[in-house]
Every structure is written in C-alpha cells, then in structure tokens.
Amino acid sequence: EGTIDEDACYYYVDDALRNTKYGFFMYSIDKRYAVIRPDYVLLTPENLWYPFAGVLPYGAKRDAQEKHYIRFSLTVQTADNLTALSQGSVTQIKPGQFTFKPEVSLPQISLVIGNYHRSSVTADSIEYSLYVLEGHDYYSEFFSEIQGDIPTEISNARWNFELRTGLGYPFRRFALIETPIQFYAHPKLLTSNVEYVQPEQIYLPEKGVLLEGADISTISRVEGQQMPGGGRGGGRGRMMTNESIKQNIFRRFIDTTFLGGAGRSFMMRFREESQQGLSSYLSMLKLESTINTGLYSAFPMYYNHTFHFSSEQWSLFNTAVEYYLLGSLGNSGVAQRFIEGLTNQELASFALSKHSLADIIENPPPGVELPAILEQKCAYLFQIFEYEIGMESFGTILKDYLTTHSYSDHTVDEFLSEINKQSDADLKSRFDEWLYQNSLPSYVLSDQECYEIIQGEQVRYQVLFTIHNREDVDGLLKLRFSSSGRDLGGRFGRGGGGGAFGATEERTILVKGGDFKKVGIVLDSQPISMTVNTLLSQNLPSELTTTFQNIERNENAEPIEGDVPLDFSLLNQFTGTVIIDNENPGFTAFSQSSETEGFLMKYLTDASRTEYEYIPLNLNEPPQTWKKAIGLTYFGESIYSVHFKSSGKGIDYAAWTAELDIDGEYDIYFYTSDMRSLGRGMGRGGQGGGMQQFGGGQIVQQRGMGSPGGMQPQAGGAIGGQGSRGERQPQAGSGTQQTQPRGILDRLRNFRGRQTPIQDFHFTVHHTSGIERVKFDAGNAEPGWNLLGTFFFTQGKAVVELSDQSDGRIIYADALKWVIRK
Predict the structure, then answer these.
(1) pTM (2 decimals)?
(2) Which are the contacts of 100, defined by CB distance < 8 A and separation ≥ 6?
(3) For an engineered disulfide with 399, which of 45, 166, 270, 678 has Cβ 3.0 to 4.6 Å away?
(4) DSSP state of 779
(5) Which of 803, 776, 785, 813 minimizes the C-alpha distance to 577?
(6) What integer pLDDT is reported at residue 683 of this predicted model?
(7) Range(s) for CATH 2.60.40 in the chain?
C-alpha cells in the first residue's frame, strides 16, 4: 500500500535530464524510478522506502560521507501467488509471507514483488538464480542442450573476473531479476554504480530487450546457427556443433553483460542524457550499439556494496579506488574509442591542463564529460601511488585491506596509516597535488636509440632517450617495450603478457617539473618497439611509439640504468635554423567562409553540441574552414598536429611568421605530412630506432653530438639539404627516416579511383626583394622536409603564406623551416 513520490528520487537530476529520451530505435519508453501496484512492487534505496541509519547522503560530496552498514530482518506479506525478493537468506513462512535475514552487514536494501518463475543452479557454494515474469521464458528451450554445463560456465566466468580484480565474491547468493522495461536508473556523480545493481541482485530489463547479448535468435543466426539443427565451421578445419555454438552465446552474454567494467556505459549514459531528442537517437546509432552493456556489471557487488572509504578531507578517495579497480577490467588507458579525434585520456588531459579536478567537479566547463575525466584522473592517482610504493606492493596492500575490512566503512586516514607501516611515502601531499593542480606537464621526447651491449657474458639491449619537461609540474611516463622474444624482463622491470609483438615489459618513470635528462634502460631481450604513454599531460597524441630496426652492437658502451641530468645549454645552441610549427604563436590560419550544414542535419543534431579543437582527418569530406587533427606523422614538439581544410578559391590562407636574427640567404622547407595515416599513426623507426619527427618550437637548434649528454640530429629538426625551388627533395633533413613502399603512395594518388585528394599547394614567400609565388607538388612529395626554394631575408619578420587554392580536395599546413646558408 502507499505511493512513492518519484519527484523526490534523483533530486540532483534536473528536469532536462529527466526528460531525455529513453528507449531504443523508434520506441520511446516512460521512465519509472519505483513501482507499487497490487500485482507488482519495485523499490530501491533511491526511493527512500525504509528508515536509513545516520544522516542521508547529500550534496556533491555524498560519496565521501560515511556509509552505514546495517544488519536487519525484513518481513513481507503479499498475495499468495506472488514472490518477494530481497537481500539475505529467505524463509517462506506461508504462501505470500517471506522473511529475509542477511548474513552480513549491508549498506542498502531493495524489494521486488511479482509473479516470478525461478530457475537456479549452485556453483562453488554460491546459489545463482534467475527470476523472470510469468510467460517471459524465451531462452530455456534454446539452452536445454547445455543445461548441465551452465554451473561450470558460471564458475569459470566468475573465476576469470575475480582473477582480474583480485577480489572475491562477497555474498552467498547471486540473483538476476527481470524488471519492467520502464524502470530507469540515472548515473550518479562520483560512482559508476547505478540502481540496477543491488547487493546480491541485478535488475534486468524486461525480456532483455536493451541487452544485445540477450537477443539469442539474432546472435545464433550470426553465428551460423539455424534454430534448430545445423552446424558451422569453427576455424582451422574444425566444425562447431550446436552445443559449442550455444556455449559461446552463453559465455558471451555472461561476460559482456555482467563481468565487464561499469565505467564505459556509465559514461555512455552520461553522454546520452546530455543530448536531446533526435540527436540522442542518432548518437545511439552512430556511437555505440550496446550502450547499456556494463550498466549491469557485477563489479559494484565486489566493491560498492561491500566496502567504502569516507573522508571530508580526501573526498574523492573512494571514487579513486573504485576507478582504480575498474581499470583492472580493461576500462583505463588510451586504447579506447576515439571521441571527435581524441581519446578519452587526451580529452581529460585537455580539460585538466586548464582546470583542477576540484574546479571541474564544482563547475564543469562546457563540453567536459566528468565521468571520462574521473576515470583517467583516478587511475593516475593510483599510478602515482604505485610508483611511490611499488606496483605489486600497493596492489597487494589495497586488496588485502579491502578483503580484511569488508562490510564496513573506513576512513582514508586509517588506510593511509596501514600503508605507512610498510612505506614512508608521503601520499597525502600527492593527493593534494592530484586534486588541486591546474596544470599538466609537457614533454619533449627525442634521441631514442637502442643498441646491443655485452654485460658479463650476457647479451643485453640498451635503450636511451632524452626527455624534457617544459612545465614546472611533475608527471609520470609509462613505458611499454614490445619484443618478439618470450623472456623479456630486465632486472628492474616486470614482464607482461603477449601483445601485437609478443612479450612486453612496462616501466614507470618520474619526470619532475623542468627536468632535462637522458634515461637509460637495459633489457634482456631485443625490443621491437617502445611506446611512451604520457598519461595526463599536454602531449597530443598522448602515446608516442618508436620502432627499433637494424640494432647494432656497441662494444665499448657501459650500461646506463636510470637518469643522467643534461646541461640546459644544449637547448640553446644557435645554428641559424628557425622552425614555425602550426601550434606556435607565429602561425595563423584565416578562414573567411564558415561551415554549412543542410537543414535536415541542423534539425536532427544538437545545436549545443561541443566543438572540439581537434577532429578526425577526413580526406573524403574535409571541413570548409581550418581545423586541426593530431597524429604522430605530423611535425611537432609535444603536440603533433596539422591544420587542414577543403581546397577553395584562394581566399582562405595559412601564414608562418618567423623572427630572423641574421641577414642572409635562407633555404625554406615545408614539412610534408604523411596523410596516409588518416590522422593518427605510429612513428617509423630507422637505424637503431626513432620516430618520424621530433623537435619544434620557433627556434630549433642542432644539438651536440657524440658527448654523453648530446642530442643526436632528429627527423623534423635537422638542417635540410639543397634543392631547387618548388621541387621535391629526397628526404631532405629527415635523417634516419624510413619510407613506405611506393605502392602505398600510388594507391593514395588514385584514392578509391577518384580525384587525388592532395595535389598542388600554392605558397607566397615575402622576402627582401619582393614577393615570389611557389607552386609545390604536395601530392608527389615524400613525407618530411621538402625544399620550397632559396631566398634572401634581412633581419626581422619573414612571412610565408599558403593559399587554399588547389586542384586537390584538401589543403594542409604543418611546419615551415628557415635554414641560413653559410
């Protein structure tokens, strides 16, 4: 009896979000937060349907407040034909009367009453139950052939999940409960947990209509299964039986629906709620076909409903622990879906380079997706802790603490005191920096090399690179070395699993604010590549990959393991070379026209959608105004980017303005970007390794060579060779750069059988004697520095302009270089 005032639920969600579309394809569904009918009841803690212990959570820091774990008993009286479902051991006193008594303290209670059909199995002393509404069993016949295998499948799936998280399932029961399709749960601000997941229970949408993995009819057809009968090829000449196909379908449903991380769909629902009307529908079709996968993750049972950290001072610590654990399920890192040309890690870095995390939570800037930032920032906090304490040590301390302090709330100070018993690291100061710091490091990586050394009687491999942090704030770099060997693992690193190149090893290094140093790492097995993840930094892209080729032996080299400080004077040696990159103040891009959209697209898309500074490079439909794309094939120092637009009538242009200190003749080079990467790509290795380009900034000097701290000439920063005006020069100044097969260039020039997207570029050089126009064949130019011509300049400003006039579809502007002739 009674009613629930649903307006009181999710009080922190405004009317605009409450009214966003909920449904799939052309179907729109009403949102309900609670149900009370004579034949059905659905109540969650959000409905405030039972007395709470202590003070109700409130405000933006609700997750930081103490969470009360309680023991209770619940008695339910309902109609004889209905089943009541809640937490704990259940006793049915008589038809329609149930008593529930949990064995452990719980943070919350839920209640469902309906005409349910129950099926259950027991595996590893845990009772797994499925409750579906009468008449909604569409799956039993399909899976009847593997009925006896289901306990084993469930046990194996749970074991794999717990192996990744390092946590054990904390309850004696696990129930999946079908609920009306109208039941809806909004995401909460500082946690990935939603009301679909309760202690011991997960609420599933009616007939699984919002779960792609529950559509067994469609999936079985995709698998080649004809219901019933038939088989299909299983690869390598093997045939898959009906039983094997059904086992695969069952495993996929379990893994993708319940045993993935909650963070991905937590973010997708935030994004879905931020859009309106038809634009939300289009977003669902374009971005993600399984937007609800993960909202039903079992992860909250392992952490949110079992443990909690509270602290007024360290208000985000509990959130940080949650996202740290979610990272073990594969949610963190840069290898995620690109969003408008940037990864989630890069989007978070972009926001955090201007605002502290505390400021973003208090007043989120327009276009900032808080869940994505929380995921990256929280993962970074524990990467700091892992560096300070040791990766294995910190993970062990945390998970041991969670295991031995379950079913209760604990303060952050208690946990930090436990850490201090085993380490003298000052984690509190690190937390303050993490929360309130409003700037990020900016790294310049150069001089990557690898050579073979002899240490004792063992052949080992020395990797060296130079790193310069141009900002005053500290930062971490994660290094990943890939090898074709199987025993990769230096003395101070830790081996990893196989990847695209086989075995891997990871290292984490600290780069303090203003550091300029050489880093040496000695490996036992020959590396194929080194990937540097700059984590939260101003670098774009945030991952830089160097490949190592033609590694030679250095008989006289002494091994270098660790950091070697370098002389800052090496950064200031003048050689008469000036480079203006498209990210430098000396670069401007002018667009007189504006982007236009058809009426239908304007109507269907959200007018308030965020315009990102960097977008994906599209050779088919380039923008009408200058935009930026990022990728390692472009020139850059810490940001590897290029300006690009569709060709025009010569009205729009880009300009490079350099300050020259010496009168004289200068060779002018244009950096030809490798558009074959379509915006993002890996660097190409050379003799001993190296990326395609490094260096940048207005004044780029040739660094000292041969000395222990000297920096080697680098692609993108070295002085170019001779060449005639407007003609392509073979890899001028590109050092060890490796070229791609000519066949790829030929395919680009015949881009899908249509007009070549990149053809002639028209430059205007303003020099001492006047103005000269240069036509440059960009379509046939090799990637790297290409000579435009030689001109005389007097001291002062020197300007070169690039018109948008071209016979091709696209124009791009990267870096320009002036090199004085001596």
Answers:
(1) 0.77
(2) 73, 74, 75, 76, 84, 86, 87, 88, 89, 90
(3) 166
(4) G
(5) 785
(6) 41
(7) 443-566
Q: At residue 329, what are phi and psi to the nearest 5 degrees? A: -95, 5
What residue ranges of the chain are covered by domains with CATH 1.10.390.10? Answer: 306-436
pLDDT at 610: 56
Distance between terminal CA atoms of the chain? 94
Strand 770-777 relative to strand 810-813, pairing: unpaired
How high is the pLDDT of residue 576?
Answer: 83
pLDDT at 771: 96
Q: What tokens does 678 get? A: 């379509």
Q: Which pLDDT tens digit goes with each residue over 578-624?
A: 999 999 999 999 998 665 555 555 545 554 455 678 888 877 889 99
Which three-class secondary structure state does DSSP give residue 119?
A: strand
For 56-125, strand residue ranges (E) read: 74-77, 83-85, 89-94, 97-101, 111-114, 116-123
What one-character DSSP code corresponds to residue 101?
A: E
- Number of other residues whose CB lies within 10 A of the CB of residue 171: 21
The total of other beta-carbon atoms located within 10 Å of residue 126's CB is: 16
Helix (H, G, I), strand (E, B) or coil at 475: strand
Tokens 């309106």 belong to residue: 276
Per-position DSSP letters for 228-251, written without gaps between them: SS--EEEETTEEEPHHHHHHHHHH
| Element of type H or E holding 499 | strand 494-499
User: Are the C-beta atoms of 313 and 416 separated by less than 8 Å?
Assistant: no
Report pLDDT digits (tens) over 747-800.
444 444 455 789 999 999 999 999 999 999 999 999 999 999 999 999 999 999
Closest-CA residue to 71 (of 407, 410, 309, 409):
407
CA 541 from chain centre, in angstroms, equals 12
Contact 95, 82 (CB under 8 A): no
What is the model's pLDDT at position 261?
Answer: 56
3-state secondary structure of 1: coil
* Type and span of the H or E element at 671: strand 664-672
What is the C-alpha separation between 819 and 757, in angstroms, rounded? 30
Residue 519's Cβ-count burial label (10 Å; 0-12, 13-18, 19+) is: buried
Tens-place pLDDT, residues 472-512: 999 999 999 998 644 333 333 334 444 444 568 999 999 99
Smallest CA-to-CA distance from 150 within 249, 247, 260, 258 is with 247
Strand ordering across the sheet containing 816-820: 577-580, 816-820, 664-672, 784-793
Residue 535: what residue type? L
Distance of CA 190 to the CA centre of its chain: 18
pLDDT beyond 60 at 62: no
**Over the stretch 642-691, which tens digit does the pLDDT of each residue have?**
999 999 999 999 999 999 999 999 999 999 987 654 444 444 333 344 34
Q: Is the pLDDT of residue 188 over 90?
A: no
| 707 to 563, 680, 710: CA distances (angstroms) | 16, 34, 5
Q: Tell me the CB-side half-sphere exposure of residue 591, using CA atoms within 13 A.
A: 14
CATH of 306-436, one of 3.90.1030.10, 3.40.50.1820, 3.30.930.10, 1.10.390.10: 1.10.390.10
CA-CA distances (angstroms) from residue 269 to 184, 185, 262, 290, 291?
A: 11, 10, 11, 11, 7
* CA atoms of 170 and 150, how far apart (whole Å): 21
Residue with tokens 């993962």: 379
Q: Give the whole-angstrom CA distance, residue 199 versus residue 110.
A: 8
Residue 694 has pLDDT above 70, yes or no: no
- The 10 Å Cβ neighbour count of residue 374 is 26
Take residue 147 and report the two structure tokens written for it: 């009925």
Give the Cα separation of 179 and 778 in Å (integer). Answer: 61
The most distant pair of C-alpha atoms in the chain lies apart, rounded to whole Å, by: 103
pLDDT at 548 over 90: yes
For residue 77, pLDDT over 90 is answered with: yes
CA atoms within 13 A on the CB side of 179: 30
What would be the CATH architecture of the domain defined by 443-566?
Answer: Sandwich (2.60)
